[in-house]
């Protein structure tokens, strides 16, 4: 089933409307990945000039939803594709996905107060036997698992959110800020590629040994105090992480 018709009176540029219709069809596997998406076909379908068609295809290509074969045309890449811009703050991925119209869902499990492993304790400079809030979060886009995060947060003992609260908010730090005024002011990241274990393969629906992207983050609050640690494993082929550097 194809999605939607254009609404010239909505105030939304035509190329954005076309892009969103095509993006949803691609992400949900409605289109045939073996058939090119030609300008002629799209001109006939949407009854617009070439400019919005070309702009929509250009943005879909830059975000990984389509690719061009020399001399053969533009082809859809089925499945969700997520490009995270550099200005999305740490802990706000879920909100970014939602604002982008990607309809994310989150499942939180394993909420507990626990002593972190020695390596994490050393990274955060914790006292011996200090217990942190610990949980895992699985974020999916278009019903496809995208990110699985293992999280430890240094928070007051009476900060005890439920799974439903964490799923609704999308970020434990947002809840922590509302209840206690504690919010990270910066974060340090390390990223590397890894091969999916049997357990990770089952989570992401890929074959064992498939490439995954790991991003490990340490969060800091005012005064440069370590506030938490997160290891986020990403479905590599569906996720791009854009960053900037300055001199």
Automatic annotation (TrEMBL):
Pfam families: GntR (PF00392), UTRA (PF07702). Residues 12-79 form the HTH gntR-type domain. Keywords: DNA-binding, Transcription, Transcription regulation. SUPFAM superfamilies: Chorismate lyase-like, Winged helix' DNA-binding domain. The keyword Thylakoid does not apply. This is GntR family transcriptional regulator.
């Amino acid at each position: 089933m194809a999605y939607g018709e254009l609404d010239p009176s909505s105030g939304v540029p035509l190329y954005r409307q076309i892009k969103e219709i095509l993006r949803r069809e691609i992400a949900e596997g409605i289109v045939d990945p073996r058939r090119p998406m030609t300008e002629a076909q799209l001109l006939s379908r949407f009854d617009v000039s070439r400019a919005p068609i070309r702009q929509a295809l250009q943005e879909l290509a830059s975000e990984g939803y389509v690719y061009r074969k020399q001399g053969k045309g533009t082809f859809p890449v089925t499945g969700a594709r997520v490009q995270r811009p550099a200005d999305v703050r740490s802990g706000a991925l879920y909100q970014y996905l939602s604002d982008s119209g990607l309809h994310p869902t989150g499942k939180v499990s394993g909420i507990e107060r626990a002593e972190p492993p020695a390596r994490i304790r050393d990274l955060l400079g914790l006292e011996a036997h200090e217990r942190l809030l610990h949980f895992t979060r699985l974020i999916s886009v278009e019903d496809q698992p995208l990110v699985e995060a293992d999280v430890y947060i240094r928070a007051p003992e009476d900060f005890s959110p439920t799974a439903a609260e964490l799923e609704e908010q999308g970020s434990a730090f947002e809840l922590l800020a509302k209840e206690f005024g504690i919010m990270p002011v910066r974060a340090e990241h390390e990223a590397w590629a890894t091969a999916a274990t049997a357990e990770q393969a089952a989570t992401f629906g890929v074959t064992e040994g498939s490439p995954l992207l790991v991003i490990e983050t340490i969060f800091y609050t005012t005064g440069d105090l370590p506030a938490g640690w997160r290891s986020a494993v990403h479905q590599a082929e569906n996720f791009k992480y854009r960053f900037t550097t300055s001199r």
